[in-house]
């Protein structure tokens, strides 16, 4: 996937900004640019894998987010990266809850409920942060 330098620079700038804002400087964040998976029904903009033990995260930015940026929807880029970076805050607890769930052999319903709670809490944190972000960002 060919990615314009200006888009890459913007993504790196936002990652650094939100990493500092959420006090997650101890994490090493790697950014990868890739095509969105074809098998997904929804339009995936980005995803993140967080390793709370080794304090690293891999942020995958898809061509769908690049298209948003190319179409002048820069705020969607800000919102998406903020949301994904907030997973650095929610993922350790989610992973621990899943581990406890596996140990106690809970149902698929419980696992889905944990995933839903993680997404809602991540989005709440993201919205709280975005209320305090300058519009010029």
Provide a descriptive summary of the structure in words:
The structure is a single chain. With 137 residues, the protein is α+β, with helices and mostly antiparallel strands. The chain has helices at residues 5-21, 63-70, 74-103, 108-130, and strands at 28-34, 46-51, 56-62. The chain has a 3-stranded mixed β-sheet. Strand 2 and strand 3 (56-62) form a beta hairpin. It is globular, with a radius of gyration of 16 Å.
What secondary-structure arrangement, pairings included, does this model have?
Layout: H1 5-21, E1 28-34, E2 46-51, E3 56-62, H2 63-70, H3 74-103, H4 108-130
Parallel strand pairs: 1-3
Antiparallel strand pairs: 2-3
Number of DSSP strands? 3
Which sequence of strands runs across the widest sheet? 1-3-2
Major sheet attributes: 3 strands, mixed
Contiguous uncertain segments of 5+ residues: none
Distance between the termini: 26 Å
What is the number of helices?
A: 4
Which class best fits the helix and strand makeup?
alpha+beta
Helix and strand pattern? HEEEHHH
Which word captures the global form?
globular
- Radius of gyration computed on alpha carbons: 16 Å
Mean pLDDT: 90
Helix proportion range: 55-70%
Share in β-strands: 5-15%
